[in-house]
Amino acid sequence: TTFLSPLPRNLFTVNSPNVVYTESEINTKYTYRTTLVNEVADGKFEAVPKETVYDFKVERKVPKTGMMLVGWGGNNGTTVTAGIIANRRGLTWDTREGPRAANYYGSVVMGSTMKLGTNAKTAKDVNIPFHDVLPMVHPNDLAIGGWDISGMNLAAAMDRAAVLEPTLKARVKKEMVEMVPLPSIYYPDFIAANQEDRADNLIQGSKASLAHVDQIRQDIRDFKAKHGLDKVIVQWTANTERFAELIPGINDTADNLMKAIEDGHEEVAPSTVFAVASILENAPFINGSPQNTFVPGAIELAEKHNAFIGGDDFKSGQTKMKSALVDFLISAGIKLTSIASYNHLGNNDGKNLSSHKQFRSKEISKSNVVDDMVEANSVLYKKGEHPDHTVVIKYMPAVGDNKRALDEYYAEIFMGGHQTISLFNVCEDSLLASPLIIDLVLIAEMMTRIQWKAHAIDGATTKEFGNFHSVLSILSYMLKAPLTPPGTPVVNALAKQRGALTNIFRACVGLEPESDMTLEHKLF
Ligand code: NAD
Fold first, then answer.
1. Which residues participate in catalysis according to the annotation?
2. Is 369 exposed, middle or buried (0-12, 13-18, 19+ CB in 10 A)?
3. Is the pTM for the entire model greater than 0.90?
4. Which partner from 107, 112, 127, 489 sits 20 to 30 angstroms from 267, CA to CA?
């Protein structure tokens, strides 16, 4: 078998006194320019340009990396696994519409480009694949493993998911039969009762315990050793859990959370146990579902251990569209007054969400996604004013993974007029989520190899290189309810999220943010 796993191509170098390449690192001096605003008398402002100089250090060696999925035997887990295998082997397969070839469509890292600059001779834009901006892991090289409460091998689980074409499944089946999820922890109260019949692959015990944390840590170490890996990224793509109650003394601090796990407290969710185990193994942990896995104690634990975490809830279809469309409407000066979002889906995720407590987690994560855009526009909205927003999800077995999303956006336009935008979005949910799973792994891994040092934060200089904050808000583009460092603002607007991602990557190689000013084409 030939594996298609291209090495980093070093497609470009930056020729600047601020950028130095060594064998093992890219070292950059970068001037970050922002604007500080002072409130002066009578509701007026004074804007003061500010500059901070940072050193960025990027480790160039691409590590051997593994991805461990919690819920590996689910629709997302099986689909992303089959997709990576198909890409790795460069597979093509027949469909009723003709042959299809493996691709990474829907992945920002693998499927999109970034403007590097302007061609010095022709003055045209030069665009390069996102994957080539920094020395990133290639998804074809990922070792894949994980846990599931259902013990089905991945080939059978892929059939159960009913997402991929039979001709494609036939080509990856042999490899996937050999892949069997590790036993997992199952606390029945956290997911829908209708999931019980698939729970046949369990680690003993039905509430949190240190033994569970230790077993998961051991699983991560074993996986690392078995595949000779430098790094493992763990991602929750298991069922949506109910919210855990936030209880002072139980999950409010790192120490209390560890004590609560030791005591088997019933408000510690399986996803939190996985997060804790990953943090203690220094494996970045990303939560792809909406529940509050990252209770304050879990965030504090990550900070204490300098471990990376990210979440919550993959932003794949309806919400991605929402965070682009609402950004557009409000930025266009149009007053959005209501959003009605309705879904029906027939996969196991839909079945789980037909239970009220689990639906509630999803409803919360889907509901806050326009807050920042509304709050930013004090011309259209008075303080505290908000568009009406309703989210409905129904389970409809017949449509399987082919989720339907119907959205009505109702807005007030010039002189009391109205605009109604009605969207009908149909697609295989798991084919949208799988590339996000890949992006989250690749970007989280990249962030473990970037360090910074400031030359001046209010006059002071940091002496040592440090990591980015434990909470990787740079992953926001892929997530519906982005987790940010405690006390920092959440950005939901899709264009801003992409801007943060691309411009932080650019800064790491000493390039200015994409400004789109193109003065070179405007000033003659
Ligand atoms: P799925 O139900 O097909 O897969 C979930 C898997 O998790 C199942 O195989 C189940 O057996 C397993 N599981 C449940 N509890 C577990 C535990 N404690 N430990 C290990 N495994 C466990 O669902 P899916 O369609 O793959 O979606 C997975 C998650 O991703 C859901 O929570 C869903 O809400 C979320 N999500 C999906 C999308 C999308 O577009 N597909 C978007 C956003 C969020």
1. 313, 362, 403, 480
2. buried
3. yes
4. 489
